[in-house]
Design a protein that fits this description.
Blueprint: E1 4-9, H1 13-24, E2 29-35, H2 39-46, E3 52-54, H3 57-61, E4 68-71, H4 78-88, E5 92-95, H5 102-115, E6 120-123, H6 130-140, E7 147-155, H7 167-184, E8 188-194, E9 210-216, E10 221-227, E11 235-242, E12 245-248, E13 257-259, E14 262-264, H8 271-274, H9 276-291, H10 300-319, E15 323-324
Helix pairs in contact: 4-5, 5-10, 6-7, 7-10
The chain binds (2R,3S,4s,5R,6S)-2,3,4,5,6-pentahydroxycyclohexanone.
Residues 156, 171-172, 175, 228, 271 line the site of (2R,3S,4s,5R,6S)-2,3,4,5,6-pentahydroxycyclohexanone.
């Protein structure tokens, strides 16, 4: 069967990660075109692959030698490329978030439904992470009874000065927003953000840390502690407190070692490495499904739900109030 000829829009960090895994570790796909507004960077990435290099997404999407597209530009630029792919009738994997607003994501949903075929997958890779899949299996077994509340941490060692208060929701907690309601098979009803005492280790405009609360229709509450300048490492935790027991998300295993009078268990330092297997499984699954003309992973409706929830959290960042989330029923097209 022919290789899936893939065009990658955006040659930044995650774009280069996906190009590397498709080229060196996965099967069934080949990167045949790359684009970036910073075209020198695109040449640096594309030329060693023998890929066609573009300075814009439209030319890449419409290249007849491109079968499918991966969008890894910054979130604010996603909608343009996704709409171009829908216009061209080409499958597209769009890194999270689908867009940076529910309004833009709704336009994508409406355009995809009008086209009559699912083409969009959103890069919520935690659904492909074995540890989250193990937890979901335990919850779905019914042995633990109803989940009552979740306690999560999304701790980053540091962020740069371009990282702003809203990104703690749209770029960071967006992963918990997608994975948590999926884990517990529930829908969000409202959102609230509270700002605890702030760290001095951040740029002046950023609010950090932030405590985010998501209430589901069942009454379940998920609390997410987002602290993106924690300094000690990249530490993702999720504890689900149920009627008949408590489930903790498995942690990456590092050897504990004794040295210099102490005992240490290292913590992961980079988000790229913490979920590297999940990214590999996710992109391999996308290649395999796309070659069969299918969309298996999180779709544009999941992307819209994440944006609606993110919009409510961003609104509450400003007021501290509880903000309702009205998502509506999942259309038949996305069931
Ligand atoms: C980054 O874009 C990610 O997706 C990481 O998973 C997240 O932890 C980090 O905060 C984001 O900036």
């Amino acid at each position: 069967m022919e290789l899936l000829r893939i065009g990658v829009v955006g040659c930044g960090a995650i774009g280069r990660e996906h190009i590397d895994r498709i080229t060196n570790r996965l099967s069934g796909g080949k990167v045949v075109a790359v684009s970036d507004l910073f075209v020198e960077g695109a040449h640096k990435v594309g030329e060693p692959l023998g890929a066609t290099v573009y300075s814009n997404s439209a030319d890449l999407v419409n290249d007849p030698d491109v079968d499918a597209v991966i969008c890894t530009t910054p979130g604010f630029a996603h909608q343009e490329t996704v709409m171009q792919a829908l216009e061209a009738g080409k499958p597209i994997f769009c890194e999270k978030p689908l867009t940076t607003s529910a309004e833009e994501s709704l336009e994508i949903v409406e355009a995809e439904m009008a086209g009559g075929k699912k083409l969009v997958q959103v890069g919520f890779m935690r659904r492909f992470d074995q540890s989250y899949q193990q937890v979901k299996e335990m919850l779905d077994s019914g042995e633990f009874g109803a989940p009552l509340y979740l306690k999560c941490t999304h701790w980053n060692p540091s962020v740069d000065d371009n990282y702003d208060t809203e990104m703690a929701v749209t770029d960071t907690a967006i992963h918990e927003i997608d994975i948590l309601h999926w884990l517990v098979n529930d829908d969000y009803e409202s959102a609230q953000v509270m700002m605890p005492r702030q760290t001095s280790d951040k740029h002046p405009e950023l609010k950090d840390p932030q405590l985010m609360f998501l209430r589901c229709k069942s009454g379940l509450i998920a609390m997410i502690e987002v602290f993106v300048n924690c300094k000690f490492g990249y530490d993702i935790n999720c504890q689900i407190v149920c009627e008949n027991g408590v489930i903790d998300l498995p942690k990456p295993s590092f050897p504990t070692y004794r040295k210099a009078g102490g005992m240490t268990t290292p913590i992961e330092q980079s988000w790229k490495k913490r979920f590297i297997q999940a990214y590999d499984v996710e992109i391999q699954d996308w290649i395999d499904a796309t070659r069969k003309g299918e969309v298996h992973g999180p779709d544009a409706w999941d992307g819209l739900i994440a944006n609606l929830t993110a919009d409510a959290l961003v609104a509450s960042q400003k007021t501290g109030e509880i903000v309702p989330i009205q998502a509506g029923e999942r259309p038949e097209f996305y069931k």
